[in-house]
Amino acid sequence: MLRTWVAAGLCAAIAVPASADTQAELVQALQRRLEANARVIESLAARIADLERKSAVAAAPTPPSSPVQTARTTPALTLPELQESVTQLAENMSRRNGDGGLALHGFADVGAAWSSRRDPSRLRGFNAGTLDLYLTPHFGGRVKGLAELVVKYGPDGGAAVDLERLQLGYTVSDAMTLWFGRFHTPYGLWNTAFHHGANLQTSISRPRFIEFEDKGGILPSHSVGVWASGKLALGAGKATYDAYLSNGPRIVQRTLDFGAFTDHDANKMLGVNLGYQAAGALNGLTLGVHGFGATAQAHDSAGAVLNHTRLRMAGAYFGYDEHDWEVLGEAYHFANRNLSNGVRHNSRLGFVQVGRTIAAWTPFVRIERSGLDPTDNYFRSQESGRSYRRSVLGVRVALDPKSSFKFELSDTQERATELLDDSGAVLPFAARSYRRAAFQYSVAF
Questions:
Q1: Residue pLDDT, tens place only, 315-363
Q2: I want to staple 357 with a disulfide (CB 3.0 to 4.6 A). Which of 19, 72, 260, 299 is the partner?
Q3: Is 342 exposed, middle or buried (0-12, 13-18, 19+ CB in 10 A)?
Q4: What confidence tier does 30 reach under pLDDT thresholds 50, 70, 90?
Q5: What stretch of H or E contains 11?
Q6: What Å distances lie between residue 76 and 280, 371, 394, CA to CA?
Q7: DSSP string for 114-180
């Protein structure tokens, strides 16, 4: 159409004698026509890009910003692919806009929960859930970024805003990306595959011992430091690796602090995660080992050091996400040493979750076990440092690629133990058991 108007304009200019004023008017009219057609072309190009984006969303169970799981009526991402998709999709979207851009997406959830009276949280009604804003700016070339800002309510009813992740990355090569800043500690599979967006994971709850620190987690789920990650071809599959150096954790007011602002001493946390992603007949299977080491201090309310523990964790994990099955398991073994007397303490934690997708429905079951040495100061200085067993049964119903309903029942049994308060005094806890029922409606945008 543009060429037709140009040709018509040129023919008119040549064939029709006119005065200088008339020619000027014709030129101006032609310019206006060209500008109008240029706007039409830009509009069509934007529409085509939008259709391509919607087609990409329909073909994969993720929104452009994050690895959102959906019903298996569309091709499903494997667990390792969940960890890659956010940056790749955001970079592709940003490139359509030119040299740079800022992709802003997010998650929101609302729900309700009820529990029996021995539950320490004593849940009794509805909740507003979490608003998770997810930004993946593209700077062009090898530089990349990721930020996650979460607005949530605390047990006291007050709203809090947390910058959960702030990562700046540099792609050294196809086999290595370096990240700097605040990130999810890359142990196991769950902690890096599922972030704060509720619509990502099949269940409502995370395994209790790898909950986020401000929700009672007893492992550092976040880290601030430097993190190298990458993949290498190995046979028919791929070998994966993560290596990180970060601020060391400490315990303040019976809650784990991973050093978001700075490190409180010279001790750093060093960790590694090595995995293998199979292909061919075993496509969807991931196997790996992980571990980290650090030195952690527990502080009283005045800031004085109560105890000093050397942490050593080693474990293994597996995942399978193919043929409508979702299987995920992780094991952790701690061999911590009390640095005041040299005594070693062994603790074991783990979980297995199995889900099966049938049309839009994904029923699942999870078993968790936490066997903590009751004399290990690292665990007994934390409010949630108690041994427990938990069984979880639920179902996720995918309404569309960006929203879902979830229902979940859980039964928890905690062992009797003795913990430490802020002053280091012993607090006895009797054995107890409780049940929870929860509902959640989550969306991605």
A1: 999 999 999 999 999 999 999 999 999 999 999 999 999 999 999 999 9
A2: 72
A3: exposed
A4: low
A5: helix 2-15
A6: 16, 34, 20
A7: EE-TT-TT--EEEE--EEEEEE--B-STTEEEEEEEEEEE-TTS-EEEEEEEEEEEEEEETTEEEEE
